[in-house]
Design brief:
The chain is of the alpha+beta class. It folds into two domains: 84 residues, no CATH class; 112 residues, Phosphorylase Kinase, domain 1, CATH 3.30.200. It has eight helices and eight strands, in the order H-H-H-H-H-H-H-E-E-E-E-E-E-E-H-E. The strands form two sheets. It has a six-stranded antiparallel beta sheet, with helices on both faces. Strands 1-8 form a two-stranded antiparallel sheet.
Length: 221
């Protein structure tokens, strides 16, 4: 389950539970926080509906409640929308950051990855790289949004750069993001997109280099 789907489910029923949702929440702190905030808002609304204004007399209580209900529902919708918009607007970027955080050991890798391991990581994505294996210190094929994608760490003069090649994820333009001490960008590519995440390296240069170094193979899915 993606973050987008989990939040739609939470928004529809803050108290609802499903095995798929609970599994996602165990691994995703931002979505756990979103559910907690949504449940708190829902509780505030229920309390407000149960208590009429102090100035209201019994004669007006019955007519007041339908308007209060409509106003509360509208307020809830606007508040949930505001909470969503105040968070990073790009759900894909958020999921990329969450995935990188789940593999912290990738940043610490120092040894070069052999060519066979790199080929294994790239095989399912239908891409090849113009990068020598001595620059790659981490290479895994990871499950991301219902597909296996290459997750690489490339060593640069300014430090390691994480690269995730997203053949099935298309973006309309360049998207930058900053979160959890990391800077990143998702750039469009001929057959999908490329996510680049750094902790200090030149993001623009790294992304431009990866757009040149990644070659998409015809006929791959």
């Amino acid at each position: 389950m993606s973050c987008e789907h989990s939040r739609l489910q939470i928004g529809a029923d803050p108290e609802g539970r499903s095995a798929e949702l609970e599994q996602h929440l165990q691994e995703c702190e931002p979505c756990r926080q979103f559910r907690a905030e949504t449940r708190t808002l829902d509780a505030h609304i229920r309390r407000a509906l149960e208590r009429p204004p102090e100035s209201a007399t019994p004669r007006f209580t019955a007519s007041w409640r339908p308007w209060a209900l409509a106003a509360s529902v509208l307020l809830a919708m606007l508040t949930v929308l505001a909470v969503w918009l105040l968070r990073p607007s790009d759900t894909l970027a958020r999921e990329v950051v969450a995935h990188v955080q789940q593999e912290p050991e990738s940043w610490l890798a120092q040894q070069h990855v052999d060519a066979q391991s790199i080929d294994t990581a790239l095989r399912g994505a239908g891409v090849k790289l113009d990068i020598t294996s001595d620059r790659i210190s981490y290479a895994q094929s990871c499950w991301f949004r219902d597909h296996y994608v290459p997750h690489l760490v490339v060593q640069t003069a300014e430090g390691p750069v994480t690269v995730i090649i997203l053949r099935s994820q298309h973006v309309s333009g360049r998207r930058t993001f900053h979160e959890a001490g990391m800077s990143g960008v998702i750039v469009p590519a001929p057959q999908g997109s490329i996510a680049v995440v750094t902790r200090g390296a030149n993001l623009t240069a790294a992304a431009a280099q990866m757009q040149q170094d990644v070659h998409w193979l015809a006929g791959a899915h």
